[in-house]
């Protein structure tokens, strides 16, 4: 990252001759005052430079919006079709999930500050009840309602009615990505937890999570994450509180459909412990909540008892009860913050390099529609 001879406005306390080791536009002496790392232009690793988080740039004042260069931030502009803006409580449930993330920050705190910045209702003249083709019609709205000055720092999302003529709950524009759609407007009376879960699910794709965490395999029983379709509309029961949204915060050992033991349920992988798994309830199998907790005594076959012997069961709905699912990751430690290369430093002269060979793990054209709503069986 090189910022030499770039006319960034000098922060108060810096001179043109002041030492700026990381060349981020903030001189070392001022970095000491703010507690940022003078050897790293992005102290907290959220792909927003210390300069823009402290002082803003290009007409966007991230500091006024609550950015902290010593704690990870994610900014999302939220636009919506008339009547589709969720309640603040619904949005807060997602914000709270990120605040409770097991992610360490340079300021000694844990969690990620998610800024869901509600912006505009789409005017009646621009309402499109079926975004088809989805990204062509989405771009028409984005071009009119999303300020270009926000593009280097914000994800952009739209609460829509439906897209491509189907009943998909939403879609991300690749993985990772900058844009996503929550398309539940066609579902009358949609539960708040389903709206919040879908928002968090699609944002999860934007920040690098697939339906199986690090792969696209869905319905993996040992993958306890809102990215798993089993939980997108329901969340979890954590510490006996229902409707809790979470990405996987536990590592769970490989699991075989051929050798199920209800008395032992899932096995943890360090640093996850049995006690961590025992906090997690609301486990679902084939669309049904089952009795017990993830650590032990799980009624996988839902026969209202804990069986002592081993048996087999088809979890991922492929008609075969012999699959072995690999160990599940801790999602929170695997997030990618650059939005497919669209979100980054974005100050003149500072490169927005990727830490990956390609901007996408899954390109937009190969991104599958997310969970389809069966209105006859919807929760």
Automatic annotation (TrEMBL):
Localization terms from the record: Secreted
InterPro entries in alphabetical order: MetalloPept_cat_dom_sf, TSP3_bac
Main location: secreted
A Pfam family annotated for this UniProt entry: TSP3_bac
Superkingdom to which the source organism belongs: Bacteria
GO molecular-function term, one example from the UniProt record: metallopeptidase activity
Keywords: Calcium, Secreted, Signal
The name this protein goes by in its record: Uncharacterized protein
Source organism of the structure: Myxococcus llanfairpwllgwyngyllgogerychwyrndrobwllllantysiliogogogochensis
């Amino acid at each position: 990252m090189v910022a030499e001879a770039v006319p960034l406005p000098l922060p108060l306390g810096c001179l043109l001759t002041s030492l700026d080791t990381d060349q981020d536009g903030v001189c070392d002496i001022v970095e000491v005052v703010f507690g940022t790392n003078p050897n790293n232009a992005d102290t907290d690793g959220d792909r927003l430079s210390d300069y823009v988080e402290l002082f803003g740039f290009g007409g966007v004042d991230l500091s006024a919006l609550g950015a902290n260069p010593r704690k990870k931030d994610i900014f999302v502009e939220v636009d919506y079709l008339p009547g589709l803006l969720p309640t603040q409580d619904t949005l807060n449930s997602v914000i709270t999930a990120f605040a409770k993330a097991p992610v360490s920050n340079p300021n000694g705190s844990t969690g990620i500050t998610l800024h869901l910045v509600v912006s505009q209702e789409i005017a009646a003249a621009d309402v499109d009840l079926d975004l088809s083709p989805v990204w062509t019609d989405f771009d028409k709205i984005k071009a009119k309602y999303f300020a270009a000055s926000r593009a280097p720092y914000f994800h952009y999302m739209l609460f829509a009615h439906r897209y491509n003529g189907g009943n998909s709950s939403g879609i991300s524009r690749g993985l990772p990505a900058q844009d996503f759609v929550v398309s539940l407007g066609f579902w009358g009376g949609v539960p708040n937890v389903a709206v919040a879960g879908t928002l968090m699910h699609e944002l999860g794709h934007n920040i690098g999570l697939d339906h199986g965490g690090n792969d696209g395999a869905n319905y993996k029983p040992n993958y306890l994450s809102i990215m798993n379709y089993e939980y997108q509309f329901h969340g979890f029961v954590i510490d006996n509180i229902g409707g809790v949204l979470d990405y996987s915060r536990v590592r769970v050992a490989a699991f075989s459909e051929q050798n199920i033991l209800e008395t032992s349920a899932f096995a943890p992988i360090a640093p996850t412990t049995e006690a961590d798994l025992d906090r997690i309830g609301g486990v679902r199998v084939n669309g049904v909540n089952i009795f017990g907790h993830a650590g032990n005594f799980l009624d996988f076959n839902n026969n209202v008892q804990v069986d002592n012997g081993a048996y087999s069961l088809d979890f991922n709905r492929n008609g075969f009860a012999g699959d072995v699912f690999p160990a599940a990751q801790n999602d929170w430690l695997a997030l990618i913050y650059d939005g497919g290369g669209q979100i980054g430093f974005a100050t003149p002269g500072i490169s927005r390099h990727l830490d990956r060979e390609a901007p996408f793990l899954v390109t937009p054209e190969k991104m599958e529609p997310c969970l389809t709503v069966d209105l006859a069986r919807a929760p």
